[in-house]
Here is the input.
Amino acid sequence: MIQHLLDGILVGSILSLGAIGLTLVMHTLRFANFSHAELLSVGAYAALVFDGIFGALYPQIRSTLDPLSLTWSLILAILFAMIVTGLSAILIDKLVFRRIREKGDELSMVFASFGVAMVLRNLISLFFGLKSQLFSNDIAFAIVISRDPMILVKPDQVFVLVAALMVMLLFHLILSRTTFGYALQAVAENPVLAQISGVNLSRMLKMIWLIGGSLAALSGIFYGLNNQINPVIGRDLVLPIFAATIAGGIGSVYGAVLGGFLVGIASNLVLMILPSGYSPAVPFLIILGVLILRPNGILGEARA
Amino acid sequence: MIGLISYLVFFATVASILAIAVLGLNLQWGNTGLFNGGVAAFFGAGAYGLILLGGTEQADHIGGFELFYPVALVGGILLSGLIAWVVGILTIRLRRDYLAIATFGVAVAFENLMRNAEWLSGGAKGMRGFERPFEDSIADPFVFNIIFFCFSVLVLLGVYLFLEKLIRSPFGRLLRAIREDEVAAQSLGKAPNQVRLTAFVVGSMIMGLAGGLYATFYAFVSPQDVLPTLTFQIWAMLIVGGSGNNQGGILGAFLIWAAWTASGWMLSKFAPVEAQLYTGTLQYIMIGMIIVGMLLWRPQGLLPEKLIVSQ
Amino acid sequence: MFVRFFKSFRCLRHALLLGMVGFSSTVYAQNCTTKIGAVLPTSVDWGRPIAATAQFAVDLANDAGGVAGCQVEMVLRDTQVDPKVGVDAAKALVDLEKVPVLLGAVSSGVTIPILTSVAVPAGVMEVSCCSSSTKITALAEEGKTKGLWFRTFATSGVQAAVGTMLARDQGYKSVVVLYKNDDWGQDISKLTVRAMKSLGINVTNSIAINDGQASYRAEVTEALKGNPEGIYMALYPKEGISVVREWLSLGGSQNMIMANSMKSDEFKESVGLKYLKNALGTDTASPRVESASKFVEMYKARFNSEPNGPGLANSFDATMVALLAMEAAGPNASGTQIAAQVGKVTDPKGTPIKADTAGFKKAKEVLKSGGSVMYQGATGNVRFDANGDVSAPAVAWSFTESGTKEERYITLEEVDAFMATMQ
Here is the structure.
């Protein structure tokens, strides 16, 4: 029970990072961006490439930081990957979404995002192949926290959880303490009104893509660290991330974090009741339950 | 030449069946504004229902009632309607994105149940043992395919005429009134949720009909037939064709299905030998670009919604 | 990464070169082409190598001068693992390209509708490398496949029995079973659990592994309950990597038994050989003749790796049998005529022939003189029963530095006897 709860929190932190970006975009631009999860793949592969480059240039930074399987070169690569992914998000918006936004409705955007997701995913598999890859081939063994009940934790997972929580905290501070944060919230609330009040809308939109993209990259890299990297990361994670966003309430950053944990924990705990074959359906049924009780998500507000 | 006709008949049959599902979705989204993300479940219920009721007895799961074909088909449709009704009661008051993810969850759960509950649906192996009506008496498979194609087109035409009549009726006007301004409709004494539920159930039953025809054509259904890809395909057809316009929906169904299949054919035909192993991946890129391109070109769909004057 | 991408292109170029060499040596023979259709999931990680292996077999036949007097062209279409797409592709191949034989599909959910709505009505022969569903046997028993259906994938019964045999011989008292949640996985796990229980091995749990989950931690935590001595896995490499890494890091036993799907370099490299010392796999066996090692050699020369991966050997044999039958049936034969020749090229009394260019040439001579041949392929002396199913001897294997090695050969009689003791 405790083990499942713990595992759920660890998985949940990865989903939360992905959901924060999605909820910002969904709220500000009013469309469900199905290509958001592909940014996780972009981030993971970008980190893989940078890690390879840095490791080759400066072999001394390749050694692992025990007990983590992380290296300095990967940490450096993470920063670069976040920037690259954020910029690709802006680029995709410029190429596709902005043009459709100018003349079409939100549903056109939703299906364009499906198309973008297909193109991105298959471009990645064309360049990097379909096989699974890893940041490190070593297996990081779990540490026994307690024997009865048996509780095991992997150092990497703790790192991921701590890092994710710190990023979320940082983001919270930016949102609640800086003028930039207020402007971001204003744009998310009401883009037109924000513009009238002197916020540079197009620059803010770029910032939203940049933040969403870089958080997605982080989420994808952490997923790769804990699991594996393959071109279908986006396809596999798009639904849990959507579920987290919507359960938390579209537009609420804190809701997205909460939703991520909810989905992570739910899909872990369910194995105690149902055979594992049913586990993919369970997060959605929980969301169905949440929405029946709170039609706008846990922390979402009704909006016309 | 015969080969080309034979293929086109086959292609058009599948496209017509998918077009029926698109029309069902158009009633829900185009006319009522219901974002149904679970098309695959309602389509699948029709398909599974048909084989369950109309198929022969199988050792590993229930069913095998060998009912008269139209009865089995209607049974499948009613199953879709029943599921839609239960889902609708729970979710119909949700708005757009929330309704979409809730119904999407229903579709995932449906696929999951079909995959795991072997006693009910044959599990991941799927369901077979369905005898296609008249197949034995029509010796030539080509003739059978032509007849089945005509049958599918007739059903499509029937559904189209029914929906055209429906949206021009006072009920159709009510649907659009609720889509545009729910509060105004409410102030006139209408019950929006009741009306929405009706549209949701009717639309889902039309999808169930499409699923029934699909299972008839393949004489087989498995969880692979009800994956979320199907929901995406049907939606893409509607959005590209023009939501709110039934003709647009049908056009979209044929166009997207043509793009989906012809891209593979062209790549296998014209791609160099070195690239043949990568054509699957290239095909996905092409399909994605076609969809994005069409939406960039005409975001409102090829045939946008027309102003309809109800009698 | 990029390197792999270029490497695969290099392989292809190499292959093209090989093909051209073959072409030049046989240029006197013909200037016609005959087509064979392939509907395989090339956009899926495990599907692409299956298609590459089929193409490899076609190239070998072309090096031997082609089939029925013509060079063979394999027309390949992706199924996207979507039945609609696969069926449409098959129909296009049959109607527009006029192929008499279809290779594929992989998933039974795609194979069956192709069989019922395309291949059988059009009288086209269908050979699948990898579809394991028992529903197809049922179709064949009802006469619905009209003798047009064959598969080189041995039914799951043998694999399950051999896996159980290994668990018994290793002395594992308790085993947890993990299986891919598809038709093949559900089948093989059910059979394995039954077999193990009948031998008194305690099956602590049997856990379905779904594709593409965000984490397999929960499944692995469940699997660890009851501290099983061994773990039996019927998974694909991609999920296998995640599951096994998780399993090992949480302190799971290294006593592993794996189905043939995990015989993959990708799996070995990602998990690490040092953790796989106690891992045994099962597979259908190659014949006890030199041609088997020859196949491995040829494969290595072409692809720069051992033929390890789900369905590769089966795909090679499916293609070879189809090509031999096309040769036996002569020019412009229909699917039905070709299917009727399958018995003649897999005749246990026929001349044994090897699965390479020389073997193919020899087969052509024997067939021309009216004889029959016994094809000895990558999965053994392929022989189909009346329902188009194969049964093959089995082998236990383990991972090595360079690939895999055979630990033990288990004859069909031995498997049968073992299965009989379980009932």
